[in-house]
Amino acid sequence: MAIDAPEQEDNRAVVLQALAISVPEIPLPSPGSDEEALMRHFNAHISGSWENFPKAMVITGGGINRSTIGSVKRKFQELESICSVNPVTVSKPEEGSNPLAFYKEEVPGGSPNYQIPLLVRDRMANFDVHRILVDQGSSCDVMYPGLFKTLQLSEKNLIPHVGLDLQMFNGSTTKPWGYVDLIVTFGEGKAMKSVRTQFMVVDCTSLYNCIIGRTTLVELYAVSSTIHLKMKYYTQDDQVATINDDIAAARRCFEAAAKNLNTVVTPKKPEPKKNPGVNAITEKGAQRGQAKRPPHC
């Protein structure tokens, strides 16, 4: 369905659902256990109550309810005009504790957002990585094959995955490639903060490069808000850094999903301009400068 279609009641986008499922790691049985003991051990962890069922990490796609493609497109246009530079800002230090708070005045466009996911960018393995989904509902951090290959990682970088295969809603299963440990850096300058992140590499189609879940958010001491399309965290000197949503990347993901595409088309690099660079660090009273950026994906 064309994304330029006029807004009508039945103008709904129906796209394929894509999700990844995490399985809690199963404790290993005692050494020397016989076959019957092994079966009792594993059955105790994988059967029974809903609490023991694999947990969904992310669900994307499906019907676009309460909003048509036209209205979502207009929302993107509104946000792009407001958040054209997408800076990372650092608040000035104040007396006492600086709260990780979100205010009504920080809502882009003045109306709460429910249509657009919170996507950020950061640096890992000397690459500037775009299309990173921030998902507080994910119990682990996930990386998809496209990013794994772009970062020039290989099998020797993987830590073996011990546990069950991942199960999808349609009953199909997939086995994770394993885990990879990387240093992930958020922000620049005074806002720069690096954390060690262990990604589960999942062979699953996704419009995102990777998912930042609760594990990294806790390590970063960060709080995210989809309503405000922002993520805030404490810097090394206890100031509050704010990362705004990557609106352009979110729009590319939306347009790809609306066309039932499995990949996102990366725009050609524009000619150099004198405007401030994307993700430049800003402070009140400070001048923004163009920062030299590593390769991006």
Structure characterization notes:
By secondary structure, this protein is an alpha+beta fold. Helices cover 17% and strands 27% of the residues. It has helices at 35-46, 69-82, 145-150, 214-220, 247-258, and strands at 14-22, 55-63, 88-90, 119-124, 127-134, 141-143, 166-167, 173-174, 178-186, 193-201, 210-212, 222-225, 230-234, 240-244, 281-282. The two termini are 27 Å apart. Mean pLDDT is 74; it is low at 1-27, 46-66 and 275-291.
Counting structural domains, the number is 1
Are there runs of 5+ residues with pLDDT below 50, and where?
1-27, 46-66, 275-291
CATH-derived architecture: Beta Barrel
Instruction: Output the helix-strand order.
Output: EHEHEEEEHEEEEEHEEEHE
Task: Look at the structure and give the mean pLDDT.
Answer: 74
Order of strands across the biggest sheet?
A: 4-5-11-6-10-9
Q: What is the assigned CATH homologous superfamily?
A: Acid Proteases
Total beta strand runs: 15
Estimated share of beta-strand residues: 25-35%
Radius of gyration: 21 Å
Total number of helices: 5
Biggest sheet character: 6 strands, mixed, barrel
Find the CATH topology.
Cathepsin D, subunit A, domain 1
Structural classification:
alpha+beta
**Distance between the ends:** 27 Å
Q: What labels describe this entry?
A:
alpha+beta; 6-stranded mixed beta barrel; about 15% helix; 5 helices; single chain; 5-stranded mixed β-sheet
